[in-house]
Design a protein that fits this description.
- This protein has one domain (9-144).
- A seven-stranded mixed beta sheet has the order 2-1-7-6-5-4-3, covered by helices on one side.
- It is elongated, with a radius of gyration of 31 Å.
- 14% of the residues lie in helices and 34% in strands.
- The longest helix is centred in the middle third of the chain and has 14 residues, at 81-94.
- With 189 residues, it is of the alpha/beta class.
- It has helices at 9-17, 81-94, 141-144; strands at 23-29, 32-33, 39-51, 57-68, 102-109, 112-125, 128-135.
- The chain starts with 8 loop residues before the first helix and ends in a 45-residue tail after the last helix.
Length: 189
């Protein structure tokens, strides 16, 4: 399943439930895999409330699954989907997870700084359910919805280019006094 939309918890969990007998693998970059001995250390539900630069309030929920690679790699194959589902079940007994919450996978190791990524694609390859992770990106919500960023005290939008200072225009004045002037061919010059 390749998606350009963000995966919500309901969809993520349903994908796991359809494939309980597969091995759950995570690919965090091209050819880079979360070590097979990973653990799901916690599942977090984070309600986010923000005000963007256009002054609009935004609210959403993120469901963050944290993966940890132990320093000692104690297994050759990754966790079964059924084991991941048992962790989900244990979590949901204490914390009902918002089915529409956006799923993020939090992961890092000694070669890859910890970050939150989105499940971008689910691939079934033999006995494996592979979750390809894609990076999170920053965005300007105001511009994304066709608006603009906030304004300065003078009412100017902060995203508009700064006007270049124009050079002052010089006013030309005639410094020659009225009266005798030098004419071409008069011999005065």
């Amino acid at each position: 399943m390749l998606t350009t939309e963000l995966t919500n918890w309901q969809t993520f969990k349903a994908t796991l439930e359809k494939n309980p007998d597969l091995t759950l693998q995570f690919q965090y970059a091209e050819g880079k895999w979360v070590e097979a001995s990973y653990h799901i250390t916690e599942i977090k539900q984070a309600p986010i409330v923000s005000v963007d630069c256009g002054g609009k309030m935004n609210a959403w929920t993120e469901i963050i699954i944290q993966l940890w690679e132990p320093s000692v790699h104690d297994t050759e194959s990754a966790m079964q989907v059924s084991k991941a589902l048992s962790i989900v079940s244990l979590v949901e007994k204490s914390l009902p997870l918002n089915p529409l919450g956006t799923v993020k996978i939090e992961f890092g190791n000694s070669a890859f700084d910890t970050r939150q990524m989105y499940p971008g694609e689910f691939i079934i390859d033999g006995d494996n359910l592979i979750v390809n992770l894609v990076p999170d990106v920053t965005q300007c919500k105001a511009i994304s919805r066709g608006g603009s960023c906030g304004t300065t005290d003078a009412g100017e939008e902060c995203c508009t280019p700064i006007a270049k200072d124009e050079k002052p225009k010089l006013q030309m004045i005639n410094l020659v006094s009225e009266g005798q002037t030098c004419e071409p061919g008069s011999g005065c010059c």
